Amino acid sequence: MAGIEEAMKILRKPFDKYAKKDGDKKTLSKRAFSSLLKAELPELAGDNKQLNHMFKEFDEDGDGTISFSEYLQQISELMVLMGFFEDL
Amino acid sequence: MAGIEEAMKILRKPFDKYAKKDGDKKTLSKRAFSSLLKAELPELAGDNKQLNHMFKEFDEDGDGTISFSEYLQQISELMVLMGFFEDL
């Protein structure tokens, strides 16, 4: 399977894992979002204040949950901003 | 390595492979972009007219090339719009 499709499936896994934990199984609640970040990207998780801020940034349409599309867009942007790709 | 970081590295590979082919090694020219799509996501490549349109969409700042950040953002959005994740 092509790299890009494989990468997208890998990105989907943690989203689905944590989305299933509470509320609508297709979106991340704030609690699920925090758990995902702490487990998957601990260096980005920070304290509750930072998590709250990040949740608001991710939740582009302000509906109180994070959709997969919002997650995908924001995680990508976040990793570019955090210089994740600088040394690749 | 965590899934998300691994996925981002996988996403970076085709970008670097085609960016190196011509012009600035850190961005995709239109020709490199077309080659990448045809190889990685043939179902999205379409004809030249569609490729031209997609290139303009990806090239958010209109500088005539596609940066990694533009590529990451647009590929994600494109795959969501094309329903890639519907049956996952």
Structure description:
2 copies of one chain form a homodimer. With 88 residues, chain A is an all-alpha fold. Chain A has one domain: Recoverin, domain 1 (Orthogonal Bundle). The mean pLDDT of chain A is 88. Chains A and B meet through helix 1 and helix 5 of A and helix 1 and helix 5 of B. Chains A, B: One of its GO terms (cellular component) is cytoplasm. Chains A, B: GO terms for molecular function: calcium ion binding; calcium-dependent protein binding. Chains A, B: InterPro entries: EF-hand-dom_pair, EF_Hand_1_Ca_BS, EF_hand_dom, S100_Ca-bd_sub. Chains A, B: It holds the Pfam family S_100.
Helical fraction of chain A: 55-70%
* Structure classification of chain A: mainly alpha
Number of domains of chain A: 1
CATH topology of chain A: Recoverin, domain 1
Q: What is the CATH-assigned architecture of chain A?
A: Orthogonal Bundle
Number of strand elements of chain A: 0
Oligomeric state of the chains in view? homodimer
Strand content of chain A: under 5%
Through-space gap between termini of chain A: 23 Å
Biggest protein-protein contact in the assembly:
A-B, 29 and 29 residues
What does the average pLDDT of chain A come to? 88
CATH superfamily of chain A: EF-hand
Domain EF-hand (chains A, B): 46-81
InterPro entries (chains A, B): EF-hand-dom_pair, EF_Hand_1_Ca_BS, EF_hand_dom, S100_Ca-bd_sub
Protein name (chains A, B): EF-hand domain-containing protein
GO molecular function, one term (chains A, B): calcium ion binding
